[in-house]
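Feature request, filed as a ticket because there's no other form

It would be nice if the structure record came with a short human-readable summary line next to the tokens. Right now we just get the raw output. Example of a typical job, pasted below so the devs can see what we mean:
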Amino acid sequence: MCGIAGIISSNRTLDPILQNMKDSLIHRGPDNQKSNIWDNLGLVHTRLSIIDLSNAANQPMQDDSGRYALIYNGEIFNFKELKKTLLKKGIEFKTNSDTEVLLYGFIEEGVKFLKKIRGFYAFCIYDREDKKIILSRDFFGKKPLYFSLIGNEFVFASEIKAIKSSFEQNLKFDFKSLSHYLWKGYYANGDTAFEEVKSLKPGEVIEVSLKPEIISRSIDTSQTNMEISNAYPKRKISLVENALKESVSYRLISDVPVSFLLSGGVDSSLISSIASEIKNEKINTYFLGFNDKPDNFKVLAEEVSKKIKSNHQTYLMSSPNFDETIPKIIKIFDEPFADYSSIPSFEIYKAISENTKVAISGDGADEIFSGYKDSKLFYLNYKLPFFFINRINFLDLVYPLLDSKIKLVRLLTYAFVTFFANDGILNLSTNRGGWNKYYRKKFMTKEGYKLTGGDEVEKNELKDFMSSGKNSIERYLNYDRKRLSYDFLVKVDRSSMANSLEVRCPYLDKNIIHDTFPVNPSSMVSLRDTKKELKALLISRNLSNVTKPKKMGFTPPLESWILSKESKIFLKNMIEDDSSIIPKLFLKEKLLKIINNDKNIVKNKSRLWHLMILHEWYKENFLNNQF
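Raw output as currently delivered:
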């Protein structure tokens, strides 16, 4: 994996701009950094060498004719099979790299070639004859790619920091997209924290002329859409197992050592078990836990390691120093990003990177095989014949009840929504942890609520959700991949690449979808259980102990962290700092009521964390008052 960037400009000297871009992306590619200039186009590549370690595989890479040039971030695991097909067409190769296969495959077939790829990518291909560049991002959105078109300059990069390094003027803060961040803790749908910067969406292709002008934009979601219905037969477990074995085998391809994250949960335990079987040798596994959080999964990870005979290492993390941790998060992610599991993710990736350049994780299993507890609600909703509530204003009644101190009230509210609301309203109801519509209206100033778009984010979510499938369970699982693309995979990419480490995710192989779908939902989920097939596979491998504990996720003890004296001081200073964005958008007296009571802090811990990150990021990026 690598870092890529480029600029189209006739106004400025490109060399110093490209150097700034290289410097900002060196963590993504410490092994080699190179740039090329053609007329008013400059391309940058920083390389993390994993397949074909020779200098011949460095980028930008040009074809024999000199018409095309490629910069690419990613891995194509089936490049050897694709190469054989291209060899039959008379193409001669000079390297053993997947980069050269992508270059010539795209020259031969264009965007159709992308459907043949098993792996992940973000790339730019320059066509000198047609005087244009083509940008593309993989179908799951595992690899990032941002761009900006301002006046007569077009800039793109793997990370926003490289785009910022290319501009002479300051970027503007995008208040309209802030409501999504406040609600969910991340940016989505191609938006970023900056008005001038956008993200390619998963599966998107953009063509840009050297004028520069965006010639065309297209997006292909067909490669990852899942068909789920009672009309389909139940899926055979062997079908899932064979697809996973094949996917894991491909992700073992590397010219450097490969390690595994082993949390002791279902997803990583199954992948580690399959890999140890395929390799027929000891694999290296890593576990991260927390000193201030009781953790049964540490024991489970050790039991799995003993069973599969891996070389296992355990790391325990203490409470972070907020004065150090929050600035680190801001530097890594370039925009507000409030998934607090990014903190331990960074730490375990840092430990692994001391020994290898590649790690394999269990990310994506919950989204593909229905692992979240909410899927039970959508499964029940799918089976029910009657819905009559579809108005978004219904949420104003639902949200406070779902946050009730009384468990029975919460359960009855969920039952009512599941039975009598459509699945779009149910989806909005399950996303209640951040600053949703109800809390934004209650805690924000009228000007702040209006400035950040009011309830437009919920309206757009409802519209997008309802168009993501033919029934409630299909819509839920297809739509849930949005969170995967814009939250979890962002976390994995930035926190790993900040440590110059590539993370591979076997569950995120489009062939798993092609080979194992369509499917009857009862194969994956019931009213009592989730991820049924993966658990069955673990039981068949004598790892039934892993299937029993309640799903926890890679979640640090935010509750104890945010109750610390250090955190309370941070929160108080944030709210009372008149130069901060927080008191300009939120009602100061209402926030102070929250932080002056420990129970209220715990209840609102995620919301407060969203504000802590936003406050520090805004202070770092915007010295001038934009209000």
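Something like this underneath would help us a lot:
The two ends are 40 Å apart (CA to CA).
The chain has a mean pLDDT of 94.
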